[in-house]
Amino acid sequence: MAVNLEFENKLWEMADKLRGNIQPSDYKDVVLGLIFLKYISDSFEEKYHELVAEGDGFEEDRDAYIAENIFFVPTGARWSFVKKNAKQTTIGQIIDDAMLAIERENKSLKGVLPKNYARPELDKTKLGELIDLFSFNLGNKAARAQDILGRVYEYFLGKFGSSEGEFYTPPTIVKLLVGMIEPYKGRVYDPCCGSGGMFVQSKRFVEEHQGRKDDIHIFGQEFTAATWKLCKMNLAIRGIDGNLGERDADTFGNDLHKSLRADYILANPPFNVSDYTLIQDDARWKYGIPPANNANYAWIEHIISKLSPAGVAGFVLANGSMSTSTKAEAEIRKNIIEAGLVDCIVTMPPNLFYNVTIPVCLWFISKKRDNRKDKILFIDARKMGTMITRKHRELSDEEIAKIYDTYHNWRDGKEEYEDVQGFCKSAAIEDVRGHEFILTPGRYVGIEEAEDDGEPFEEKMTRLTAELVELFVKSHQLEEEIKQQLGAIGYEF
Question: pTM of this prediction?
């Protein structure tokens, strides 16, 4: 998706004006539910008109739609009917009834769609105006409508994600993870899938590389019920058939995909969770039992346990995961490094997440590293990115490509790869042992060489020393002034 497109932004601004006194967390369900209803109705009506033109009387036959992976939309749930009644005081109940009817006709959507439009606090006049807002003409082709509405849904998710970041991974990170592990074909798994951004980007990656969306098979799990529903709708609006289990569930306490061995794993686990379901004798803890007060290493071991014999994983963790000296975590880190599983570590710049300032890193784990089993690639990307707002940073597509091209060249043994001081280093496991198995890239890549300004060393040192002396003098003067000011109001020290 192109970020900050004028169409999506204007649509967001207009929708936000209609929010009134509804909290963003509640308004999210109102808006995204309407976008979803518009999407499935447009797809249905295109097929409906095709069947009418064929003249065989199958336009109300549910199977004619299901056979082509199109949701069947009953008469009272179609957008044309909803729009016709947008100014009625009963519009909230009409939409709730429409959502219920769609769920009855489409088992995969059971319990997924929002059904709280009739509640008193939702202004029905504003609701009608929202329906008018989303009644834009998307052309005659469902494929085009699907693309536009998918972009709108994704854009709105991102905007809501600026206040509710737990269900939304920033596009910068998703693009980089997908670009690194290249999920061309096979099983793709996310054990904490949020609203499904990893899956949407994986599908986009496949299509951009002339593959088919059914070349990958999606498996996911999500702990929060509301977010699980968002993900189901997000996949449906993108035409992705994914296995997310029957409902939301705790990955550690109730693994919904016990027998799964994935070819690709992408994940953004919640950082530093201090209260999770730790089963002591779990087979997943092959490299050590993780501590009960921090789930970071439980996620790492869970992800490793889900990889196929040639599988690769890319996931986000807090920076502390690279160097924690907690006994259990340090032992697990040592064991997975010695097992040759850690492929690459990337430190990211700050402010990438909308609502979290904690610095993050990306881990890449690979089961098949025959040509590089005794090496780990370290990349320091902390200086990359541009501040888009006062609080939020994004990496450009060129910067993202620089990181994953560096990794691919190293991984594939290409001549184009070379260590770059301050940016990347292919370190031997022996070096990592010497650093007590700490994985912080800064320890290995070194400091970027400063550009020579031509000033002779002796002259530069004389100048800098003089500047330092001047600063010391100013510091003492300020200290005396502060003491005098405090003394004047009765505070002596």
Answer: 0.81
How much is the CA Rg of the chain, to the nearest whole Å? 27
Q: HSE, CB side, 13 Å, CA atoms: give it for residue 319.
A: 15
Question: Of 149, 182, 173, whose CA–CA distance to 11 is shortest?
Answer: 149
Q: Which of 140, 146, 110, 164 is nearest to 35 (CA)?
A: 146
Structural domains of the chain sorted by starting position, each given as residue range(s) with its CATH number in brackets: 6-161 (1.20.1260.30), 165-445 (3.40.50.150), 454-493 (no CATH)
Looking at beta carbons, which pairs linking 298-304 to residues 24 or more positions away fall under 8 Å?
298/252, 299/191, 299/192, 299/267, 299/269, 300/332, 300/336, 300/363, 300/365, 301/332, 302/191, 302/251, 302/252, 303/191, 303/265, 303/267, 303/365, 304/336, 304/341, 304/365
Instruction: Please name which of 150, 169, 135 lies closest in space to residue 270, comparing C-alpha atoms.
Output: 169
**Which of 248-251's residues contact partners 24+ apart within 8 Å by CB, and which partners?**
248/222, 248/223, 248/224, 249/221, 249/222, 249/223, 250/223, 250/276, 250/277, 251/191, 251/192, 251/221, 251/223, 251/302
Rounded CA separation 92/241 (Å): 30
Q: Which residues have C-beta within 8 Å of that of residue 33, sequence separation ≥ 6?
A: 95, 99, 113, 114, 117, 233
CA distances from 115 to 25, 35, 101 (A): 15, 14, 11
Torsion of CA 96, 101, 107, 110, to 10 degrees: 20
User: Would you give per-residue pLDDT tens digits along the chain (493 residues)?
Assistant: 344 456 777 788 888 777 777 777 778 888 889 989 998 898 888 888 889 998 888 888 888 888 888 889 999 999 999 999 999 999 999 999 999 999 999 988 888 999 989 998 888 998 999 999 888 765 555 555 556 777 787 778 777 765 554 556 888 898 999 999 999 889 999 999 988 888 888 988 887 877 777 788 999 999 988 889 888 888 888 778 889 988 889 999 999 999 999 999 999 998 888 888 888 999 999 999 999 999 999 999 999 999 999 999 999 999 999 999 899 999 999 999 999 999 999 999 988 886 667 789 999 999 988 888 899 999 999 999 999 888 788 899 999 999 999 999 999 989 999 999 999 999 999 999 999 999 999 999 987 655 555 667 776 677 778 778 778 877 877 777 777 776 777 666 5
